[in-house]
Amino acid sequence: MKKKYTITDKTITIITGWIAVFTVIALAAWGVWTLHEYYVNEQTNDAQVQQYVNPVISRAGGFIVAVKYEENQDVKKGDTLLLIDNREYVTQADQTIAAIQKTEAQLAALESNIHTLDKSATAARYASAADKSKLWQKELDYNRYSKLYQANSATQQQLEHEKAGLEVSKADYDASESNFQASSSRVQDAVMEKAVLAAEIKRLKSLLARQELDVSYTVIRAPYNGRIGRRTVEKGQMIDAGQVLAYIVNEETDKWVVANYKETQVANMHLGDTAFFTADAFPGKTFSGTIISFSPATGSSFSLLPPDNSTGNYVKIVQRIPVRIKVDGPNGELALLRAGMNVNVSIPKKDHRE
User: Which InterPro entries would you find in this protein's record (predicted)?
Assistant: First the structure.
């Protein structure tokens, strides 16, 4: 019995046939386009957007009294992020200020004392000079009476009187000279003590500067324009110096893409070449960039345990070389890209051989 086809069956057959034809044409066109892309471009999907993501670290310890930011908040350079209880640091600084004032008062009193000691030393020097003159006069008198005694013009009693006066003058001069030397030594001692106090003041001022820095560290500010990441601290929490409090994405620096190309793909890539890429988050939008550097070694060479091919268990694996690409374009487009996004990079092939 012959099967009879209805008009509907014929229509379905025709439509199915055309769909198959269009499908084959589309697949062929896609295949040709893909082959063409691989022929004219070096492509990789092993690429991510990179940006400086730095930790916000506390330089002082204490209890947090206020948190001034929220997660994913945009911040400007100098904005206050956290406040730490600074009373202990302020008290220490006040104690150092008091110690400086006390030492400065001691220094002022010592300077006044040095002035008095210097006057005393001057008076002692004048007294010594006067006693020296008296001694000289007594020596002349004694010599004169000695000659008179030898000429029988003076008595033994007169000579002994002059000799006793000479000995007294010598003793007075020695005492005056010793007093002058002692006064001069006291002045020198006071000058040395003044230097010690001046050095102590310098030390205390340096200590105060350090303590004032500690006070300033209790106010944690944004180091640059950026966006804060996840918030992990709260008011009343105790933190230590050096503790990571948050992460901030630096918006002041350029964004870049690290494309990990196979070593067989980088032969004709050069600095300054233009690259195009699409982000998985925005498949219909094409971004552009410029090659700014090539890694000095393959990615595996920088790994924690780089491969050692001298062990005898050698299996050749194509290595990848990170290529750094600076992202170009207006700020509006750059704002769409976030650190860590996956992208597909295409770099037009160029024959640079002469």
Answer: Beta-barrel_RND_2, MdtA-like_BSH, MFP
DSSP notation for 148-172: HHHTTSS-HHHHHHHHHHHHHHHHH
**Sign of the C-alpha dihedral computed for residues 12, 16, 19 and 21 taken in this order:** negative
For the chain, give the mean pLDDT: 84
Region 36-52: mean pLDDT is 83
pTM of the entire predicted model:
0.66
Give dist(CA 344, CA 41) in Å, integer: 12
Q: What is the DSSP letter of 255?
A: P
Give yes or no for residue 135 having a pLDDT over 90.
no
Spatial distance between the Cα atoms of 72 and 228, rounded to a whole number of angstroms: 5
Confidence of residue 187 (pLDDT cuts 50, 70, 90): confident
Buried b (16+ CB within 10 A) or exposed e, 211-237: bbebbebbebebbebbbbbeeebeeee
Triad 352, 33, 345: Cα angle to 5°: 55
| Closest of 51, 72, 53, 65 to residue 244, by C-alpha | 53
